[in-house]
Amino acid sequence: MAGFRAPELGAIVVNADGPFGIGLAAYARLAADGRLSVRIAQSFPLADAAGAQELSESGHSRGKLLLCP
Questions:
Q1: Stretch among 23-27, 29-33, 57-61 having the lowest mean pLDDT
Q2: Those residues with Cβ within 8 angstroms of residue 51's Cβ, 6 or more apart along the chain or in another chain
Q3: What are phi and psi of 68, to 5 degrees?
């Protein structure tokens, strides 16, 4: 990624290189330290899973989509 400056700006970058468990351990440490944040774009009731899927496929969501029981 050209010009990737996230680490310079204080972001912690965890990538998928190497064993999967290494990434999970890093995420667990961030969560335990209260330093993990996840942007939630929208929550959907489980009955509207199709709507969540449509939004996901549209590419217009900025953040995670949640399905709630």
A1: 23-27
A2: 44
A3: -110, 135
Helices vs strands, H then E, count in the chain: 2, 2
Examine the pLDDT at 63 and tell me if it is beyond 70.
yes
* Other CB atoms within 10 A of residue 26 CB: 15
pTM, two decimal places: 0.55
> Do 61 and 55 touch, CB atoms closer than 8 A?
yes
43: three-class secondary structure by DSSP = strand
The number of C-alpha atoms within 13 Å of 53 and in the hemisphere containing its C-beta is 5
